[in-house]
């Protein structure tokens, strides 16, 4: 009938519980604190930055107040040089009327630029020079080799011979050029009767140069000159073998030659034609004599 009353916790139990709660509360409310190391100042780093900054400032002062005036002074310096006034072809002799003296800034000027006209006049252009070009010592030479380079490098077994162009028509109206392959037609005869003959041994011949009555190459005349002032071609220089040279000398004295253009500007075809011409002379000596005198 009667319910048993729950036993009250004894005072010891109460104290024990309180102590446990107190311990739990203390553990929860007081987190563990670790001692952090104190930051250290790296004075060396600041010293390095300061040193670099000071060095940059000093360098800037040197550039602004030291180098800049020197550069400006050099840029403003003026000097007289020799410059091309008219076209000068490769191999052509430099004359006083083709150059001029001008005053230019000396800064960044090539060390081998010509500054005196006497150092240039009378020499030969190694390469073509155009108006406005500075004349450098590397572009001119006192060696006349550069005036007629084709005469210094003749192939083995070849000679150079000059024959007359006795009329404008006989030389393709003055249009022949270096490197052309031409076929020569001979005109001659006896008792007043003339006939044209095509010569097998002169079927394909290379032109080395076309010259005027003054002996200068026709391609070295000033382009600015009028047609009246320019000399018409008078002779043609050919690259031939000794047998061909004999035939040409014969017709130079006793007849007349006409040049007909076969090939121009085609190196492959040029070599093929020259090889075909040489094949005629690869026969026996008897065959060569018969070909050379078989007119």
Automatic annotation (TrEMBL):
Keywords: Membrane, Transmembrane, Transmembrane helix. Residues 1-24, 213-233, 276-295 are annotated as: Disordered. It comes from Desulfosporosinus lacus DSM 15449. This is Pilus assembly protein CpaB. The chain crosses the membrane at residues 50-71. Residues 79-141 form the SAF domain.
């Amino acid at each position: 009938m009667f319910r048993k009353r729950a036993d009250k916790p004894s005072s010891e139990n109460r104290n024990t519980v309180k102590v446990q709660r107190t311990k739990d509360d203390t553990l929860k409310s007081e987190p563990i604190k670790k001692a952090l190391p104190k930051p250290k100042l790296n004075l060396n780093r600041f010293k390095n930055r300061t040193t670099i900054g000071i060095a940059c400032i000093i360098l800037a002062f040197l550039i602004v107040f030291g180098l800049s005036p020197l550069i400006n002074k050099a840029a403003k310096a003026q000097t007289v040089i020799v410059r091309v006034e008219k076209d000068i072809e490769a191999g052509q002799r430099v004359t006083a009327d083709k150059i001029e003296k001008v005053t230019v800034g000396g800064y960044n000027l090539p060390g081998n630029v010509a500054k005196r006209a006497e150092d240039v006049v009378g020499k030969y252009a190694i390469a073509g020079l155009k108006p406005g070009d500075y004349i450098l010592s590397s572009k001119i030479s006192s060696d006349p080799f550069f005036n007629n380079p084709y005469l210094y490098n003749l192939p083995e077994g070849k000679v150079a011979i000059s024959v007359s162009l006795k009329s404008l028509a006989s030389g393709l109206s003055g249009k022949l050029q270096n490197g052309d392959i031409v076929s020569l037609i001979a005109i001659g005869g006896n008792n007043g009767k003339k006939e044209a003959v095509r010569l097998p041994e002169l079927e394909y011949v290379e032109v080395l140069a076309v010259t005027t009555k003054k002996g200068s190459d026709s391609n070295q005349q000033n382009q600015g000159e009028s047609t009246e002032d320019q000399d018409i071609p008078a002779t043609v220089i050919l690259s031939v073998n000794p047998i061909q040279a004999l035939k040409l000398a014969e017709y130079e004295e006793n007849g007349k030659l006409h040049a007909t253009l076969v090939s121009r500007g085609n190196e492959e075809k040029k070599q093929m034609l020259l090889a075909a011409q040489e094949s005629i002379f690869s026969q026996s000596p008897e065959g060569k004599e018969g070909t050379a005198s078989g007119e």
